[in-house]
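Request: Not sure, any thoughts?
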Amino acid sequence: MTAEQSAALIARRIVLLREQKVLLDADLAALYDVPTKRLNEQVRRNPERFPPDFMFRLNNQDLAVLRSQFATSNGRPAWGGRRSPPWVFTEHGALMAATVLNSARAVEVSLYVVRAFVQLREVLASHQELAKRLRALEQKTEALAFQHDQLAANTRAQLKQVFDAIRQLMIPPEPKKRTIGFVQQEEKPQNR
């Protein structure tokens, strides 16, 4: 498997929680080929290496977010049969976990983890650029629509004037009224 394929597989396991991209402890342990229990044990033994911006525990709200991301069931137990909520690791926490595990597999996979996080950042940057372009296009469209509306209103007013003028021309002229009764015509002087 190539480095890109490995990074892509890892990227699929990265989730967005609390506006951070993170890996669940079980997923990270599987990547490093160690039991989740051993990973969490090493984290507990080295608390100074894992500040809150490197890892945090899931709460019920986080679990609801995960369910929506993975479309999992609402069934219990809440933490997948565990006694305590799982930990999640940020990019830096995942790398630090590789150092405390101190295995060849952990070091090898940590490189893929870094590449996966970098890939996600690049994708996010491209989405932001696309969103920026979309906003600019939307603004241009709004401006054109406004200009079109003004032009259409002016055109409608001019067409109304033309139609009114045509209607006026279509009204037949009133016929000359003839007087009722005997009308004596004026005599014309005859030229003799």
Notes: Residues 182 and 188 are 18 Å apart (CA to CA). Confidence is low (pLDDT under 50) at residues 73-77. The radius of gyration is 40 Å. The first helix runs from residue 3 to 13.
